[in-house]
Prior knowledge:
Elements: H1 3-71, H2 74-82, H3 85-91, H4 94-100, E1 104-109, E2 114-121, E3 126-127, E4 155-160, E5 165-172, E6 184-191, H5 194-204, E7 208-212, E8 223-225, E9 231-234, E10 239-247, E11 253-262, H6 264-298, H7 312-380, H8 386-399, E12 403-410, E13 412-413, H9 417-428, E14 435-437, E15 443-445, E16 451-452, E17 457-459, H10 476-488, E18 492-497, E19 508-516, H11 525-530, E20 532-540, H12 542-547, H13 552-557, E21 558-564, E22 573-577, E23 591-597, E24 600-608, H14 610-615, H15 620-651
Antiparallel strand pairs: 1-2, 1-6, 2-3, 4-5, 5-6, 7-11, 8-9, 9-10, 10-11, 12-17, 12-20, 13-16, 14-15, 18-19, 19-20, 21-22, 21-24, 23-24
Helix pairs in contact: 1-5, 1-6, 1-7, 1-15, 6-7, 6-15, 7-15
Amino acid sequence: MSGWPRHIWRLLLIFAGGIFIFLMIYATLRLTIYSSFVRVERQQALDAMGRCEAALNSEISRISAMCHDWGMWDDAYKYVKDKNESFIAANLSNTLFDSNQLNMICFAKIDGEIIFSDKFDLESKANFKLKDMTGTKVQGDFLKMLRLQSPDSRLSGFITTEKGHFIAISNPVLTTHGQGPILGAIIMGRLVDKKLVDEMSEKTGLHIEMLPGVKNGLKGEALPLSGEKYSIRELSHELLNVEWTVKDINGNSAFAFSINIKRNITRNGTSAIWLAMLILIGLGTIVTAMIHLFLGRNFPSEEIAFRHGWSVRSVLIIMVILVFGSSLSAFMYHVFKKNEADSLIKDFERNEAAPVVAGIEQKLQTLEDNIDSTIRLFETDEHVNREEFRNFTAKVLERNRDVKAFDWVPRVLRGERSDYESKASEELNREFHFTEKSPDGRMVVTGERDEYFPVYYFEPRAGNLESAGLDNYSEPTRKAMLDKSRSTGQRILAVNLKLVQDKSKKPGFLLFNPVYKGNIPVDSPENRFANIMGFVVMVFHMDDTVGSMLSDSNHRNLSLEISDAGEGGSEKAIIYSDGEKKFGIYKGGEVVRKFDFGGRSLLVRCWPTMKYVKEHTGRTPYYVMSIGLLITIVMTLLVYSHIQGTLKESER
């Protein structure tokens, strides 16, 4: 009976050791791992609402670009001036609203007199009325959209009406060449309704809800967390909520967007930690018991004893526990490390790569939209002069400072060449000739041929005079591209060129856009080839275009490469690369996206930098391994204590 107290004491020791292990693990979870999970989830929630805001701003930019194009249009200017009904019949049908996703368009005098106003419901496909935009005068907050003091003015804001909240954009109505005086304004609007919210949800991959403009409008108890622009609320152990309150044109709360984010990171992470702990403890206990039983059955009772009375069996038990526990800890470390890497790439793709690629695609789309507006200048008037081209492109260049030049490249026949050269010499007050590059790299007067495509108008003139007169038909590569563009009617992107006007070593890019003679059929390749009037050309550096939209954070977090996919998906050329990053590149996390621009399929590759990897990986794998090793050591000590106790009893 005297042995029972000692056995009870050992059992109590084992139980206390188990409690100690659990308390240490719990403290480690709460103080280190769990708090890091909360920080990651909070940042994830902020990034999600940031994508929501970016989607709304993208829609505002789309409407703003459309409003600007309509505001700088000779036909609209004449309509505001003389109110001709033919303009309404030709341009302002319900198809305009439906195809451009607009709910309202209004032409008004600066004093508020309504010239034209119509509203359209995109869901019911029916017209409706607004109190402030019905009658002879613009009323309410819409009056503020008429405060356009100069041709460069542009106003935007959210306006609350009885129908709902409107995105409202206004531009002065000017001539196609941006000239006044300002006779009136055009106001375009779209309702911030379920349809728009659903579109934003689809773009962002989030379930976005629209709430009344009351901060923290959700019911129920919630713990507000600190935030700058957005309000983050901990609804439960399962959900985080983020709200963004949008202000109207008067600075008052108009409405709010709300997103619920599932707390998968804390839930799954904590579960994984506890699962790892239980696996380690469970397997360690089972293996220890199995080893003890196995060695007890297979080793004779009379065995060689080591120093201090330790048997082979006892030593083997200790060694197996140490080896198995260490191996299992290392295995769990690698499992958690791999899961962490997979999660890192998913987060990088969602929060870094996807927004950057979407921004690049939107930026290039904006360039195409701007060149389309320049094409309409020539479609409206085939006899655009040099000064009109200069005035019009000045507005576009001001909005796109990364564009190096806009050129007009007309088709000039052999018999017209001397007239073109003489007229340009007079307008530029300098000698002007059609030129080409000689084999030794010098610019020389081009020889005689049936037709030419010279750089005739070029803006801005500063920094681009060297390209004046360059015949694009003199270079086989450019000629092939021009012929393909004029035959197909599609824009063509020429990449990685050495620009004659460029002193830098950066590769140049030319976006050729065909313009055809008016009132002549262009329904076949032959007709298009024969009836080409010329090309509007945008000149830019991809380095400047992409670089202008990358933030310091983007440069720190990702490495970027854009290539031409070519036909059949095989890569042809690298057209942008930010080179070796000083922060290093994590090549194991490549994200690839593909989109079309200028008749080419572009591949965008993104890699996280090592700095990003370091900042977005935690210590969880190390904690798991440490816990495993701790459990191994504790179990080894408990077995050691048991063996020592047994030896002392046998001695007695």
